[in-house]
């Protein structure tokens, strides 16, 4: 079973990479739709979504780890 600390580290790494990809995507795609947002606002918006993503990812990871740990049929494989 994955430790809570490992779950958090994995989630943070995943979200950080996702944040960078999203930020660069926003900078490239938004202008095509006439959306012009200052870089500072893009960074803040991304920060909020990053925090939400970390909480979501960590919570789901812990849920599935708990479900797997409490499943006696899954232990028989």
Any overview of this molecule?
- 79% of the residues lie in helices and 0% in strands.
- The protein has three helices and no strands.
- The two termini are 15 Å apart.
- The mean pLDDT is 83.
User: Which class of secondary structure composition applies to the elements?
Assistant: mainly alpha
Spans of at least 5 consecutive residues with low confidence: none
Q: Can you write the helix and strand succession as a string?
A: HHH
Largest sheet: none
Roughly what is the average pLDDT, rounded to an integer?
83
Q: What percentage of residues falls in helices of 4 or more residues?
A: over 70%
Number of strands: 0
Summarize the structure.
This protein is an all-alpha fold and 77 residues long.
Helices, strands, pairings?
Layout: H1 4-29, H2 39-69, H3 72-75
Features:
mainly alpha, 79% helix, 77 residues
